[in-house]
């Protein structure tokens, strides 16, 4: 599957990994990108850089009405990247639950709403691909980011369930499980980090090779073996159980 000539929508595309995905999509010859952000003027630099390939779209992923409008406007989309994300680490036992609820609103309920809104679009168009940004923290909880990890586990579960449900309809659902990437989100962590550009290119390589999971950096690559031997094996067993007799 080539990325060339696809029509993509990327949430949270104004900075970080989302911005790098837009740059990589343009480089690989995508025909149009709905660059989504909650503050539309934050997309001005992308339009200046890439011109008419970019269609700016106002989209706060916590807004059901904005998600519905996005699905109407981007009704020719063939790839939707659920990239927008939020991290506000709090102590699991004593921390502020408002932060945890916001993490879930953006990291889980947003992608769920977008999956529900764009599945009919993909069905009308004869298929499509969701690319969901989870995290290695979604495969094994990091207690320093406890509720963020929970929210990323939830989007991982959504990814696996939607893949099982929709694969027979020509809809692919790809899970992405990065380790630390050098963006605003990880600015407080002193450790080696992948560049957003390398992660964006690994995601598009995964799309083009037909992968259902992408481990886009050296740290996350260490998760692949255990994941494939464990959770993926269970998912494949469920897929077999769902096959008509
Ligand atoms: N960086 C890492 O180490 C790392 C590792 C694993 C997974 N990830 C995941 O990768 C994705 C991108 O992360 P990043 O590192 O690029 O983060 P980032 O630099 O903090 O960027 C976050 C993006 O999400 C957008 N966003 C936040 N709340 C939103 C909302 N309610 N509606 C729409 N957009 C919203 C932000 O828009 P504003 O500019 O308007 O705030 C921004 O564009 C996230 O899902 C993150 O969890 C990141």
Brief digest:
With 245 residues, the chain is of the alpha/beta class.
Report on this structure.
- By secondary structure, this protein is of the alpha/beta class.
- It has a single domain (7-242), classed as Rossmann fold, CATH 3.40.50.
- Helices cover 47% and strands 13% of the residues.
- The protein contains 8 helices and 7 strands.
- Strand 6, helix 6 (196-209) and strand 7 form a beta-alpha-beta unit.
- The longest helix is centred in the middle third of the chain and has 28 residues, at 97-124.
- The chain is globular and about 45 Å long.
- It starts with 6 loop residues before the first strand and ends with a helix.
- The structure holds NADP nicotinamide-adenine-dinucleotide phosphate.
- The site of NADP nicotinamide-adenine-dinucleotide phosphate has 29 residues, from helix 1.
- NADP nicotinamide-adenine-dinucleotide phosphate binds next to helix 1.
What is the fold's blueprint, element by element?
Layout: E1 7-10, H1 16-27, E2 32-37, H2 44-50, E3 54-58, H3 64-73, E4 79-82, H4 97-124, E5 128-133, H5 146-166, E6 171-176, H6 196-209, E7 213-214, H7 218-229, H8 231-242
Parallel strand pairs: 1-2, 1-4, 2-3, 4-5, 5-6, 6-7
Bound molecules: NADP nicotinamide-adenine-dinucleotide phosphate.
NADP nicotinamide-adenine-dinucleotide phosphate (NAP) binds at residues 11-12, 14-18, 37-39, 42, 59-62, 83-86, 106, 133, 135, 178, 180-181, 183-186.
